[in-house]
Amino acid sequence: MFEKSMKIRKEKRITQKELAKISEVSLKTINRYENGIKISFSSEKKILENLNINFENLHTENIEKNKISFNKQAEEYEESKYINQKNSVIQLINKGYPYTGKRVLDLGAGTGFISREIAKLAKEIYALDISKAMINQIENLNKNNKLKNIIPVRGDAHNLEFDENFFDTVITRLTLHHLKDIDLVLKEIKKVLKNFGELIIVDIITSEKEEEADLQNNFNKIRDFSHNKFFNLNELKKKLKEINFCNLDIEIWKEDRIFEEWIKLSKYKDEDNVLFNIMKHFAINGIKLGLDLKYEDSKLSFKQKMVLIKVINIK
Predict the structure, then answer these.
(1) What is the pLDDT of residues 214-244, one digit of tens each?
(2) What backbone phi and psi angles, to 5 degrees, belong to 253?
(3) How far is residue 61's CA from residue 54's CA, in Å, rounded to a whole number?
């Protein structure tokens, strides 16, 4: 999209400085965008709208990318140790305890791995995912495990079609970084969550250093085309506070990644070892990129920083 916007800007004979002024986006941000570096959703929207580029098509494109990516992953999704890590699952579940009598939304449920664990404790849990293949997996696994209090829902996190104040708890694990407009998603969550209800988030966060964060996001964009953006911790905290989620309870840890296993989950084929060699180059030159990159015994490994955030909804 940045290539199209740059082409249209030049056709209209608008300089970057002029576009910055009319779109109320900094010149630095426009320059980064036109160099293919990820910028915020709101800044991209302002730029495209001021160039008369249909922004709705961009949102639809993101949804379609998520559908395609996760339809491909569905069958073997739970086989990945990055998905079925018991410790982080227990950590998430304990953060929302007790669940007795509660109605829970699992936002970006995948195959329902988290939903099935919480179903043992909660009144009912709605497992929402954009992917039809993921929803099919949930339905099959519900039958196999004789679970009747999990309700599979195929839907978009940007438009939650539930009544206001419907849920006691909303959980979302490894989902936010795939979503195009996190601000809109958080507002949708706030709407369907009861007053004093709990939102529990688990996701990957980037380095606070801008250059490292850009590279971390670009690596993931190459590996999985449905990836949108990892945020740093301060960005997430700010977004939550801006729409009046309170009492932030935060835990941070790191998880080990092996390159081959990491790309396998997204079904990415690193033809000619392009991504491998880029990351290997940084590793052998001692450039950690906030990932503790290592290349030893012909193996490329790194660590991703994880965050668990629990907040209270105040209306």
Answers:
(1) 999 999 988 888 888 999 999 999 999 999 9
(2) -155, 175
(3) 11
